[in-house]
Amino acid sequence: MSDTYDAIILGAGAAGLFCARVAALRGRRVLVLDHAEKPGKKILISGGGRCNFTNIDTLPERYLSNNKHFAKSALSRFTPRDFLDLVEAHGIAWHEKTLGQLFCDGSAKQIVEMLLEECARGDVTVHCGDAVASVERSDEGYTVRYGAAQAQAPSLVIATGGPSIPKMGATGFAYDLARQFGLKVVQPRPALVPLTLPADEALFRELSGVATEVVVTCGKTAFREAALFTHRGLSGPAILQISSYWQRGDTVHIDFLPGQESGWLKAAKRARPRVALRKVLGEALPDRLAQALAERLALTGELGNLSDKALDTAEAQLARWPFVPDGSEGFAKAEVTAGGIDTAGLSSKTMEARKVPGLYAIGEAVDVTGWLGGYNFQWAWASGFAAGEAI
Asked: Rounded to a whole number, what is the largest CA-CA distance in the chain?
């Protein structure tokens, strides 16, 4: 015997729970399944435990996808303000940090509790702790076996995310299921992830723990935020951002002194000819970093004794210091997964598979990846809303 529903949603994360809430409040009977013991596990660890639940500056061009236009429809129909209205309706205090990032004042638990309360309003059944054993499609719809039970529904939503942070139980299940039904998958890769450096950058590894604001560039993409040196390479918001655009073999350039006007070193030489480069750098950068850069530039002695040409060369190198990462820290440390279920097989309006009626894919499982800072949560809410309105 199967329990019968209007929709079965696989994945009790941000996208899955929100989709369930939207569909249930439209009168749909919804079952949410997740192999984890509790719903919303990734939500709970996000934003340092305070959940960076959206970004007020959300724009479609701040998402990566093989189809750069795909996210526009869903994002336009459910906005950051729409989600913020729900947060405020539940009395959750919030604050804006840098660059439009919105966080709970209290805890990420408040967002999970809000989603579960909303699901309860619509009598959503949330079942955790059993892995999906099989999914089959017939004329009647989809039959899902899990644990000792099975359920049937005309609509099935894939909301199981990507393989980033496997210690939280993340897997590539969404891709296997998509392929089962003939959908293509864009090669998944770690995104918003620290980059590693080869052994010849050992000097910078000695700077582990040092952070400073930089402009980091890869190709035509640049971000101005903090970079952090680690014992394995580079991290911090600027590096996580650029990692989504980085491909193996690419050079990453860092401007260690963003905002400095051209010729600033020669100006320093004229104003203070007896000061050393190490001293000048130390006035603008963390001491250990200033020392390391001065050693790499190999310009010793007073500025007054250095040629203008040498200072111009040093200035140019400080503004575009090259690093060639030898990899990243992988899915284990990636905040999200780039790639995923190919949007070419999905409707941008409803998230339904074009050639498989009743099958939907939302959230991180899909080839849509946002910037750091609440963008991926907004995609979860928006794509979940789009599917929830359709099923």
From this structure: 88
User: How does residue 2 score in pLDDT terms, banded at 50, 70 and 90?
Assistant: confident
Kindly report each contact of residues 58-64 with a partner whose C-beta sits within 8 Å and lies 24 or more positions away, as own/partner: 58/100, 58/370, 58/374, 58/375, 58/378, 62/370, 62/371, 62/375, 63/368, 63/369, 63/370, 63/371, 63/375, 63/379, 64/191, 64/244, 64/245, 64/338, 64/368, 64/369, 64/370
Q: Is the pLDDT of residue 234 over 70?
A: yes
Q: Per the structure block, which two tokens stand in for 204?
A: 């910078």
Task: Find the distance separating the first CA and the last CA of the chain, reported in whole Å.
Answer: 23
By C-alpha distance, which of 307, 367, 390, 365 is closest to 14? Answer: 365
CA distance linking residue 26 with residue 10, whole number of Å: 19
In one-letter notation, the amino acid at residue 149 is: A
Q: Which amino acid is at 156?
A: L
Specify burial of residue 140 (Cβ count, 10 A radius: 0-12, 13-18, 19+). exposed
Residue 246, C-beta contacts closer than 8 angstroms, at least 6 positions apart = 195, 218, 252, 325, 328
Once rounded to an integer, what is the mean pLDDT over residues 56-64?
A: 98
Tell me the average pLDDT across 232-252.
Answer: 97
User: Do 216 and 242 form a contact (C-beta atoms < 8 A)?
Assistant: yes
Return d(Cα 377, Cα 206) in angstroms, integer: 35
Distance CA(29)–CA(4), nearest Å, equals 9
Residue type, 113: E
Question: What is the chain's mean pLDDT, rounded?
Answer: 97
Residue 195 and residue 243 in contact, taking contact as beta carbons nearer than 8 Å: yes
Q: How confident is the model at residue 204 (pLDDT cuts 50, 70, 90)?
A: confident
Distance (Å) of CA 17 to CA 64, 172, 323, 328: 24, 19, 41, 31
CA distance 290 to 310: 17
